[in-house]
Amino acid sequence: MKNVAIYARVSSEQQAEAGTIKSQIEALRNQIIMDGHILQPEMNFIDEGFSGATLVRPALEKLRDIAYSGNIDLLYILSPDRLSRKYAYQVLLIEEFQKHGVELIFLQHEKAKTPEGNLLLQMQGMIAEYERAKILERSRCGKLHAARQGSINVLGGAPYGYRYITATENTGNAQYEIDLSEAKIVKLMFEWIGRDRLTIRAIKRKLDSMKVPTKKEKIFWDRSVIWGILQNPAYIGKAAFGKTKSGKPIPSLRRIRGGKEISARNYSIYKVPKDEWIFIPVPPIISLKLYQTVQEQLEENRKRNRQRKRGASHLLQGLLVCKECGYAYYGKPVSNKSSKGKKRNYVYYRCIGSDAYRFGGQRVCSNKQVRSDFLEKAVWDDVYEFLTVPERIENEFGLRLSGKTKHSKWDSNDRLQKEIRKTKRGINKLIDAYTDELLDKEEFSARIKKLKDRLESLTAELKNFEDEAAYEKDLHIIIGRMKEFAKKVIENMDNADWHKKRKIMRSVVKCIEINTKEVHIVYRVNPSPFQNAPERGHLQHCWKGRKPRTFEYLSQLR
Predict the structure, then answer these.
(1) Which residues contact 419 (CB under 8 A, 6 or more apart)?
(2) DSSP 8-state symbol, 546
């Protein structure tokens, strides 16, 4: 029996929601049944809503790990562009799979048995990459042209106060239709700012007390939502297109609550200057004069408001995560009432989920707050020990290495390879004896089966030796890099100021998980990335034929 796996992918979340990936999976499974194989449930690798322009995909990462361990013989894929839309990535993945003994079967491409077949496969990869770039450029140009012609179709949705009438509902042309109940609330918001000179926080309190639902049917309003409504020029009849653009992804320090470890998006959203927006006529809700008055009042409120210090205000800001609910911790200063008039040199780190006002008056987490001076000292002491005591890291990775290494009766790689060569010679001699009619068929079949089983067992043992050696080499590289990093910072750690401490922590700490009774510090240690990848320096590419790994080290404080 051969180990069979399938891989399928769709690019957008809309395709994933529409279930278009089901046709891929069904076609792959039908082909496996026709070929007489059995597909195990755990060998289905599906990436829904992930672009083919990146290699950072959860199912693909898992597939590459299992292929590296030698547990896949046949891999069924609909077409090469399901692996990647970039030709360089396709070649990299195909070579990697083939190196690990995986036979690739593309349903929409015949198996390449000749140089011409390999050339056709490569051409198909280049065409797929060209097709993707062409589609993106045509889509961009088409949307720009439609926006300049005043078409509502390019907007795709309507803000609070409007209903979006799709093109199919309105004979080919989309439009904005005023929602009278929501438009009444929009007018009130602008009047409260322009006429009554209220703040955004006061407007939030009014809306919450009136129990006005948001566009998403929430019973409480966020100040950012109110700010966005007050800034939107659509309410004076000028809906803006092109307010944002996609660009190079910005690395995030902490995973978004409820989000995936690997983001499906390989880009980030950037704001576009207002003079580059394209305005499309829509039905107005408020007058131009009221809108301008509100913008002036917002600017006046901003100037009169105390200017906040930009950047981080607390040492552990951006690293703290609540283990109970998944929300982040933030620094909350001690109020004058709680401090009884005394100035405090510390704040309390508090879980966002414990703030009832953020969730319509009912908290979603009961985890306690923590004094910043106690927590920051404990974390810094642990980081200090982590960097200044290299034996701690060596012991941790030594345990991992001992757990990875399997017991073998062969004491060296050379002896094992010698035994493999000896077994192969025995098979050849046995075949020669059967050819010279020195053995009958039954005796030959029994003895050849025994030798082939032994050869398979020896080959598996050799692969284990190679895996263990590669794993040990990874660990030694990691320990060496950590020692090198520690040597650079250890001289100044005793006299490190606030900014240097924060920089050191962010370099080695992945996150700090706060439980009801314990605090877990998760360290991250990365090996050197593959330098010859299609895009240099990205950890998702192969590293000496294998995928590099990110080791996490857990430290616990009570």
Answers:
(1) 410, 458
(2) B
Residues 485 and 538 in one domain: yes
How many angstroms separate the Cα of 549 from the Cα of each of 112, 470, 504, 541, 552?
A: 32, 12, 22, 11, 10
pTM passes above 0.85: no
* 284 domain residue, yes or no: yes
Task: Look at residue 185 and tell me whether its pLDDT is greater than 90.
Answer: yes
The answer on pLDDT for 5 being more than 80 is yes
CA neighbours within 13 Å on the CB side: how many for 226?
A: 26
- Check if the beta carbon of residue 247 is closer than 8 Å to that of residue 267: yes
CA–CA dist 208, 220 (Å, integer) = 5
Tokens describing residue 210: 């009136």
**Does 116 lie in the same domain as 53?**
yes
Task: Kindly report the number of other CB atoms within 10 A of residue 387's CB atom.
Answer: 23
- CA pseudo-torsion sign 284, 287, 291, 294: negative
- Per the structure, the complete domain to which residue 40 belongs is given by 4-145
Where residue 501 falls (left for φ over 0; alpha for ψ -120 to 50; beta otherwise) is alpha
CA distance 281 to 277: 13
CB 161 within 8 A of CB 183: yes
Residue 369 exposed, middle or buried by CB count within 10 Å (0-12, 13-18, 19+): middle
Which tokens sit at 433? 């004896």
The token pair that represents 49 in the structure block:
């809503």
Closest to 128 in 3D by CA, of 192, 52, 74: 52
Select from 145, 172, 205 the last residue of a domain: 145
pLDDT 10s digits, 22-65: 888 999 999 999 888 888 888 999 988 887 777 878 888 889 88
> Using CA atoms in the order 354, 358, 361, 366, what is the torsion angle rounded to 10 degrees?
-10
Cβ(152)–Cβ(174) below 8 Å? yes
* Integer Cα distance of 351 and 332 in angstroms: 10
Decide if 247 is inside a domain: no
- Residue 113 located in a structural domain: yes
Spatial CA neighbour of 354 closest among 315, 320, 393, 305: 320
| Domain CATH number, residue 123 | 3.40.50.1390
- Going 291 to 296 to 299 to 305, the CA torsion angle's sign is negative
State the Cα–Cα distance between residues 160 and 183, nearest whole angstrom: 8
Residues 169 and 141 placed together within one structural domain of the fold = no
Tell me the pLDDT tens digit for each residue of 430-487: 888 878 778 788 888 888 888 888 888 888 887 777 777 766 666 666 667 767 777 7
Q: Is residue 324 part of a domain?
A: no
Residues 491 and 435 in one domain: yes
Mind listing the pLDDT tens digit for each residue in 214-267?
988 888 898 889 999 999 999 999 999 988 887 777 766 666 666 665 565 667
Last residue of a domain, one of 87, 110, 145: 145
